[in-house]
Write a structure and sequence with these properties.
single chain, mainly alpha, two-stranded antiparallel sheet, 2 strands
């Protein structure tokens, strides 16, 4: 079981999730990592149970050895074989214990690496997001300044155009007043001429009579 568990740990691959701007950042799925750690914890718990069971078996074998040594009719060869079996089982337990410690250490290292990677990626995403937000804010301010500048230009042009129109209006008004005065003078002159001609005709008529 310990060999299969260690192989599973080495061969385990997490699903990559692309985040950040344009998906340039790769992180591991939080739920998948938590599920894997839970599964690993279950396997480690089972391994602990197996180790405890092995210890109990060794204790039982030791008791059996004592009983066997006390029994009559048992050969020395049989007792030696029992002793060899106990030594071998003790070695197996020791190997299992070392393997268990290695797996726990690997699990802790993997979990720490995953946490550090997640923190690093989160920090990178936050930095990129802040940078992008600042760029968008600067761009918005620039466009606002340009719009305000264009508005001021339009207002100034409108004022100048209005001033030109007012000046032209005053010029036309003066021209109209001049034309009106000229027409009045012409009319008065014509009336005076008619009156003069009428008086001349009246005088001529009196002479003729």
């Amino acid at each position: 079981m310990q060999n299969r568990l260690s192989e599973n740990i080495k061969e385990k691959e997490f699903k990559e999730i692309k985040v950040g701007l344009l998906g340039a950042t790769v992180v591991y799925g939080k739920q998948e990592v938590e599920d894997y750690l839970q599964s690993l914890a279950n396997d480690v718990e089972q391994l602990e149970k197996d180790i405890k069971l092995s210890y109990r078996k060794i204790e039982l074998l030791e008791s059996q050895q004592k009983i066997t040594s006390e029994l009559k009719g048992r050969s020395a060869e049989e007792l030696q074989q029992y002793e060899k079996d106990l030594v071998e089982r003790a070695r197996q337990v020791e190997r299992m214990e070392k393997s268990f410690k290695r797996m726990v250490l690997m699990a802790e290292e993997d979990a720490e690496k995953t946490r550090e990677s997640a923190k690093k990626e989160a920090k990178t995403i936050l930095t990129e997001s802040r940078k992008r937000a600042e760029e968008l804010l600067d761009e918005a301010k620039k466009k606002l300044d340009e719009a305000q500048g264009e508005s001021l230009t339009i207002v100034e042009e409108a004022k100048e155009r209005r001033l030109m129109i007012d000046n032209r209006y005053q010029e036309i008004k003066k021209e109209l007043v001049g034309i009106h005065n000229f027409i009045e003078k012409v009319v008065i002159s014509e009336k005076g001429l008619e009156k003069s001609l009428f008086s001349e005709k009246a005088k001529q008529a009196v002479i003729n009579e």
